[in-house]
Amino acid sequence: MTNAMKGAELARVLFSPESIVLVGTSNDLMKTAARPLQFIRRAGFAGRVFNVNPSRSEVQGEKSYSSISELPIVPDHAFILTSTEHAIEAVRECGKLGIPVATILASGFSESGEAGKAREELLREIAYANHIRLLGPSSIGLVNLWNNLTLTANAAFGEAGLPRGGIFCASHSGSLIGALTSRGRARGIGFHSLVSVGSETDLSIGEICEATLDDPTIDGYMLFLETTRNADSLRRFALAAAERGKPVVAYKLGRSEAAAELAVSHTGALAGEDDVADAFLRGCGIVRVDTFEGLLEALPLLKLMSTTVIQHRKPRVGVVTTTGGGAAMAVDQLGIRGVDVAPPSEETRRLLAHAGVEGGHGRILDLTLAGTRYEVMKGALDILLKAPEFDLILAVVGSSARNQPQLAVKPVIASMGVGQPLACFIVPDAPEALALLSEAGVPCFRTPESCGDVIAAAMKKQTPNWAMPGNISVGDSEQVMLNEAAAYGLFARYGIPHADFVVIDVSSPLPALPFAYPVVAKVLSTSISHKSDVGGVILDLKNNEELRSAIAAIRRNVESKVPGVEVGHVLVQRMENPVGEALIGIKRDNEIGPVIMVAAGGIYTEIYKDRSLRIAPVSLEVAREMIDEIRGFQTLKGYRNQPKGDLEALAQAVVAVSQLAISKDNPVLEAEINPMLVLTDGRGVIAVDALVTILGSS
Amino acid sequence: MTNAMKGAELARVLFSPESIVLVGTSNDLMKTAARPLQFIRRAGFAGRVFNVNPSRSEVQGEKSYSSISELPIVPDHAFILTSTEHAIEAVRECGKLGIPVATILASGFSESGEAGKAREELLREIAYANHIRLLGPSSIGLVNLWNNLTLTANAAFGEAGLPRGGIFCASHSGSLIGALTSRGRARGIGFHSLVSVGSETDLSIGEICEATLDDPTIDGYMLFLETTRNADSLRRFALAAAERGKPVVAYKLGRSEAAAELAVSHTGALAGEDDVADAFLRGCGIVRVDTFEGLLEALPLLKLMSTTVIQHRKPRVGVVTTTGGGAAMAVDQLGIRGVDVAPPSEETRRLLAHAGVEGGHGRILDLTLAGTRYEVMKGALDILLKAPEFDLILAVVGSSARNQPQLAVKPVIASMGVGQPLACFIVPDAPEALALLSEAGVPCFRTPESCGDVIAAAMKKQTPNWAMPGNISVGDSEQVMLNEAAAYGLFARYGIPHADFVVIDVSSPLPALPFAYPVVAKVLSTSISHKSDVGGVILDLKNNEELRSAIAAIRRNVESKVPGVEVGHVLVQRMENPVGEALIGIKRDNEIGPVIMVAAGGIYTEIYKDRSLRIAPVSLEVAREMIDEIRGFQTLKGYRNQPKGDLEALAQAVVAVSQLAISKDNPVLEAEINPMLVLTDGRGVIAVDALVTILGSS
């Protein structure tokens, strides 16, 4: 938006305005539009507050102006509380007056059918023309706890006395913020500011967060996402946050199809596939948690681990406990999420024994009742936190956390910073112990599920994919599908091998083949994407005679099944003898940009959802990690004494395809090698079918 | 145990003794053995309490007896607080005196290596010989809140003022009970009694629970399980509970391999495969939850649904809310667990509109702020609870539950019993609202995860498998592997078809085959279980000549690869043309008894764990449900226009195999049809390989 406010100055007028105007304050205390003034006065905001209400000269005992234009100064921020129909006009007036930002409470825009979409478009144009930034519509407002600004119509959000802290919270859902503040309060978790972004007609969640990045009092970001719309600004924010070492945790709706659909109807956004969103958030270095409680609990651990990235191996957690059963629950939750709880090494056991710490010989160090004594737990932690076999130590504390909260968490708090990251799961109901730990910055968990969720998510965090290109505008450019031979040619430029082939003109005599039989013959055409379905592929041809009659059969099949198509050429390709198959594909998501996929070949890709996605491009290390995630590739790792496949060559091909995905010369919209044959270890991989759609001319 | 106490009388001496003796009460208040007397006195137990301490005449200001034999009366229950070494002798003395039950605190038995196992064996013998029942060892005791009996050494367990209710709680882990009581207390959930069963040397969790079944003040059971040992008594209890309509919920450790291993080292039990345990619990009608919070929250819903069983279709939940974002979280958690949130029908929408309830047109009924008004929420619930398209209604309540708990939950409480079961998810932190709901018996959830978990588990509850045979003692009987032909014969007796075959004596001339070529030839032997691995199978033989040379090749291959085996016969079988494959197997679990498995054929069974288990026998309906659970069978349901497979015939075969599993004539230890070929719909299924191991002579 030209001439419109951005960056730190935007953050100031949003969260630290010196003056605000409430447009449409009601005098009827039962009405929603009466609430913001009440909340602001109750919280004790120190700036100037103006009210506009055309039908009254006084509201709630304060002066009311009859219009925005009458205000004695130009306020920093307008909160528009009017109905949908009056909101657009109010924005225009605010803009004309020079108010830099307006927050709109009303709904009835993009989420309300065609009429709503048109209203939203108008609103956007008016804001743009008048150089005013918008928060909302459908925003229930924002809160900055550090200056008592409660610019909101929501009671929960405007609750008095919320603890202050360093967490900046932004949410697509307004009603969810009350849940976060109240649950945070019960845990002693302090927020810096909270904002309901509504339908992001102008300001997106990414741009708002980005604007606050240089605020030294903000040390972490908590996002509640319904979609990944406005991915570009979200990415920009996340990468900048990663550079500053400020962690970002997100809970995103849409793990199930029903909820993905709901997010659409709820906010008017488009639903993407959830695993694409997953890949995007990982690529941005945003840690996605799966439990709601985990969203609240994650940031302390992410802060501790802000520089830690565990790549290409299973992370290992060490567990010490006073309650075997409680610890086992946490171990279970970590295990089902792919995090190993590792036993102490021989050397560590020796050190523990030397320090007089007894904890059995199992996978966890079970101190039993003895662990409720300070010196026993502290002694164990001092040794475990420095043991090289662990990436993190989890202390699981039992009933003592309830009966003697101070004593029970003392050794844990005292052990912060001794070595590896430390976290704590409290098994009984013990709010006091949790609050003490939170206050001391110790990552702590109330349930085994959120404990497993957060630790696994933190351990799987990626360094951001700095090379992510983002989306390009496809506009009205022509989409061109390459024929199979041209597709091989494009892949070859990126070093991706394909099986030898020749293209044969079906009207000429059969030439001598430059490779040996057996071969496969395939129709060559840019108008047929499923060649086999129309009888366009014949396999295992052993000699000239079989090849000739196959070519004739392909002409007959295709021309009878696809009326209007005349078969001019066939592609004849050498048959290969693989040990396995894979699929490598790239796809351009409308919001997110190019996504690369590796999958097990065949129908099982679809049925078992056995695929791995990342935002392109990927490094060799990430490509290996993707391949490791495919369960079906176990058959290529020496399963049941079968020959091993060349998965390293497959990883190299994945890297190459991911480079093609970000090519600027002929932007690729979609590309797929399926199957990519995997030969025995050391012999490489080889594409035997290829599909490419590019933008522009071929 | 002969002459030993059982049933209601056992429950009485355990949980409602008129007199107890504490053996080994310490006078040193810092010691664990000092605690039970303190807790008992603090709680105000009304019965007689005796203390035995050989070295003192007084402990904690009360009289102490120097030995058990000096007691003036025979108490109902002894709590033995001594060290491991003295516990056995104390049990003997108690038994000799006629005390009917003793609880043992000490550890150091089965979980402590060979010496511990021997000690446990001795303990069991002494108890048996002296007609005394044992709780423990490694039991931290028990509590009955209805008579202030706190027979425990654990502070959390002995906490004063716990709310009383109807829940009987039994746990393998002692330290976990403190977590359940404290978390329950925070939610206003009242327990009847709680017991730590320790290592179940004599009394098992099943027998203890069963003994309490006729207590009218107990209305549900909560189990924390580490293993499924003593499965027979657990099954007996669960079936009896189901008959009485008393729900049983269980949380079982061992979803991950690491935790399964931990349960072994922690309690000395054997770990079974977790999905076998799952099948067992389902078969018993026990509802297994996956979240710890869900364990506490499940019983009210299970009580409401005690007579509801939804079979062979996806359950449908209707959602009404004041917070779209909060409801979407619950929808997501239900969706990933296979429970559909269904939109209101046209008729229901008409009724809602008529009642003036506006809630949009989406999958959930979003009342927004209007839903915080009593008449709006009550009006919506009255209609939804009677709508035939729902199996359950979930009300998701937002910030009003915190700000105005009484008002927010009033319409929900008032709607109980109006129609279908009703449950409530409270999105913000609102302990008061949760307590009000709990008090009124409304199933209510604190997190979206436990909400999804409990509702999905309740909806998938099975009627118990009344025909479960339980385990049989294999003893020293001979295990006999049948040859393939005999295995087909056994299966045929149960109506399971196999491909036509003849057995050919390799030393005789080739006879005329009673079926057409092509055929497969296989070595016939009871000493080779993997025929293909030794070159014992040759496929696709087209005529006599090919068959003759195949038989010769099989003799050569097998005799060279398996020294000592002489090939006397081959099985020649007609080749069939299936559309798919399946695996049907039965296995006898040592604790649980016969388990039946259906799986997708091939290597994917193992890699994708695409299998479904139940306790044998199964009905046709359950067999169909099992087949529905196999993702790989999607290829046989008209996937991508491929021909459909005869899955109904497969279901019938599963039922038949499950009947074979419970045969008493020749008890089957293990049997497998792999592959069972699935022909096109209407043409049936046909076994083409079979393996059976039975007990006794063939």
If you had to describe this structure to a student in words, what would you say it looks like?
The structure is a homodimer of 698-residue chains. In chain A, helix 1 (7-15) crosses helix 6, helix 3 runs parallel beside helix 4 and helix 11 packs across helix 17. In chain A, 34% of the residues lie in helices and 22% in strands. Chain A is an alpha/beta fold and 698 residues long. A 7-stranded mixed beta sheet of chain A has the order 9-8-11-10-12-13-14, with helices on both faces. In chain A, strands 21, 26, 27, 28, 29, 30 and 31 form a 7-stranded antiparallel beta sheet that branches. Chain A folds into 4 domains: 7-253, Rossmann fold (3-Layer(aba) Sandwich); 310-459, 3-Layer(aba) Sandwich (Rossmann fold), CATH 3.40.50; 500-574, 2-Layer Sandwich (Dna Ligase, domain 1), CATH 3.30.1490.20; 580-697, ATP-grasp fold, B domain (D-amino Acid Aminotransferase, Chain A, domain 1), CATH 3.30.470.20. The radius of gyration of chain A is 30 Å and the shape is flat. Chain A has 22 helices and 31 strands. At the A-B interface, helix 5, helix 8, helix 11 and strand 16 of A face helix 5, helix 8, helix 11 and strand 16 of B.
